[in-house]
TrEMBL record:
Organism: Vicia faba (Broad bean)
SUPFAM superfamilies to which the protein is assigned, alphabetical: Photosystem I subunits PsaA/PsaB
Top-level lineage group: Eukaryota
Keywords: Membrane, Transmembrane, Transmembrane helix
Protein name, per record: Photosystem I P700 apoprotein A1
C-alpha cells in the first residue's frame, strides 16, 4: 500500500507540480521522480517478500481454518481465472481502439477515428475530478485562496524565467486511450504476479 502511494506521489510531483519553480527545475524533477519510484519499488518488493516468508514459514492451514486467507487460498483457481479473463477483456478492448484508429487512418477515414475531432472518448470521471479541484477554493474549500495545483484548470499559464512552469492540462481522448492501455497492463502484471506468488506456493 505504501509502495503504491509512493509511486503515485512520484507521478503527481511531475505531472501536477505544486510549486512553479519545481516545474522548471528539470534536474530536481527527475531526481524526485527517480527517488520516489525506487523507494516505491523497494517497498512493493519488500511487502511481497515478507508475504511470501509468512506463507512459507508461519502459515498453518490447520490452525487457520476458514479464515479470510484460507478461503482466498481455497478459491485461488477461480480468482486467478477470473482475473485472467478480466485482463484479456481489458487488453483486447484497449488495444482494439488503437487497431481501429490505425485501420481508419490507413483507409483514409479520419472522421471515423477515436480522437477529439472525430469520435470522442472523453475521460469524464477524470475531468470531473479536475473540475472539482479547480472549483474547490470557492465551493468545497471556502477558506482556500487557490487550488492545490494550477494544472487542475481554471488558471492561466505560469512562466518562470521565460520557461513554462504550469498550465492547465485539458484531458481528452488521447488521455483516455493511454490510461486504458496502462490500466490493462497493470492488471496483467498484477494477475501474473498473483498467479505465481504467494498463492502458487500452497499448491506445492
Amino acid at each position: 500500500m505504501l509502495g503504491s502511494l509512493t509511486i503515485i506521489v512520484a507521478h503527481h510531483m511531475y505531472a501536477m507540480p505544486p510549486y512553479p519553480y519545481l516545474a522548471t527545475d528539470y534536474g530536481t524533477q527527475l531526481s524526485l521522480f527517480t527517488h520516489h519510484m525506487w523507494i516505491g519499488g523497494f517497498l512493493i518488493v519488500g511487502a511481497a517478500a515478507h508475504a511470501t516468508i509468512f506463507m512459507v514459514r508461519d502459515y498453518d492451514p490447520t490452525t487457520r481454518y476458514n479464515d479470510l486467507l484460507d478461503r482466498v487460498l481455497r478459491h485461488r483457481d477461480a480468482i486467478i481465472s477470473h482475473l485472467n479473463w478480466v485482463c484479456i477483456f481489458l487488453g483486447f478492448h484497449s488495444f482494439g481502439l488503437y487497431i481501429h484508429n490505425d485501420t481508419m487512418s490507413a483507409l483514409g477515414r479520419p472522421q471515423d477515428m477515436f480522437s477529439d475531432t472525430a469520435i470522442q472518448l472523453q475521460p469524464v470521471f477524470a475531468q470531473w475530478i479536475q473540475n472539482t479541484h479547480a472549483l474547490a477554493p470557492g465551493t468545497t474549500a471556502p477558506g482556500a485562496t487557490t487550488s492545490t495545483s494550477l494544472t487542475w484548470g481554471g488558471g492561466d499559464l505560469v512562466a518562470v524565467g521565460g520557461k513554462v512552469a504550469l498550465l492547465p492540462i485539458p484531458l481528452g481522448t488521447a488521455d483516455f486511450l493511454q490510461i486504458s492501455v496502462f490500466g490493462s497492463l497493470v492488471m496483467a502484471l498484477e494477475e501474473g504476479g498473483h498467479a505465481k506468488y504467494p498463492l502458487g506456493i500452497m499448491s506445492s
